[in-house]
C-alpha cells in the first residue's frame, strides 16, 4: 500500500477512507494535529512531536483518548502496513462527533492518521521567499486545524514561484506559513521567541541544539523585516525541510554572507537526522 488512512480504529488505502459529516473538524476545524518524517520505518523526533501534540490538545481542552505510548505504538504499527520508503506521518484529534453546536460535546476525540510518501529534504538547497502580513489569531503556539491564513499565504508564495511566505505583524517577523524563520547575523542565531505568536517548531528546537553544541550565540527575540533583509543568512525550518536557507525575499537577493556558519548548522542537523534514521542519500 502506497498511502494509508486511519480513522478511529479503521484503516485502509488513504483515498478510500471517509470521515463522518458530524466530525467537529468538518464544522469548526475543532482539533489539533502534528506530523513527522519517517525514514527506514523510523519516525524522526517522535517523542518531541507527540509531546507537542498532547500540549496542543491540552490547550484546546481536548481530552486524550489514550496515552502517549499508545499513540506512538499505533503509529509504529501503521508504518509497517505501507510500502517502504520515506513517509510523512500525520495525525490529528478532533473534539469528537456530534450535531453542530459550538459548545463541547460529550465523548472521546476522533483520531485520524495519514501516511503518504515524502521526499527526503535536500537541506542544502536555496529557496525563494515572499513576505505577508500576519492575519492569524493569537494562539499560533497551538497546532490547530485552523490554517486558512496559512493556506492563502502559501498559495501566494506558490503563484510567485517561491517556497514559503514569511509572516510579519507590522514590522516584526513571526514565522512562515508552514515553517519557522530564523536569521544569522554577526556570527549569531536569532529567532522569534516561542510565545503565542509562533509554533514551537521541532526543527527549530534541533537548530537551537546545534547552536548550543557548536557554541553559536543565540538570541530568542523578535526581529524586524529590516533585519530579515539585512541578515547574513535566512533559515527556514520545518519537519519536511529541517533547515534550508533563502537566496531571495520578495524578489530581492538575500543571505549568502555567512555560508560557512550556515553549513556547520546544517551539517549538525542533517547528521543528527541521518544518525537517527539511518538514511543514506
Summary?
The chain has helices at residues 24-28, 46-59, 68-79, 148-159, 202-214, 225-230, 259-277, and strands spanning 4-7, 10-13, 31-39, 42-43, 87-94, 110-117, 126-133, 164-169, 172-176, 180-185, 188-191, 218-220, 223-224, 233-237, 244-249, 252-253. It is an alpha+beta fold and 281 residues long. The chain is globular.
Tally the helices: what do you get?
Answer: 7
In CATH terms, what is the fold-level topology of the largest domain? D-amino Acid Aminotransferase, Chain A, domain 2
CATH C-level class of the largest domain is Alpha Beta
Give me the CATH architecture of the largest domain, please.
Alpha-Beta Barrel
Shape: globular
* Percent in helix: 25-40%
Note the run of SSEs as H and E. Answer: EEHEEHHEEEHEEEEHEEHEEEH
The percent range for strand residues is 25-35%
Number of domains: 2
Question: How would you state the average pLDDT, rounded?
Answer: 97
Cα-based radius of gyration, to the nearest Å? 19 Å
Description:
With 281 residues, the protein is α+β, with helices and mostly antiparallel strands. It has helices at residues 24-28, 46-59, 68-79, 148-159, 202-214, 225-230, 259-277, and strands at 4-7, 10-13, 31-39, 42-43, 87-94, 110-117, 126-133, 164-169, 172-176, 180-185, 188-191, 218-220, 223-224, 233-237, 244-249, 252-253. The model has no long low-confidence stretch (mean pLDDT 97).
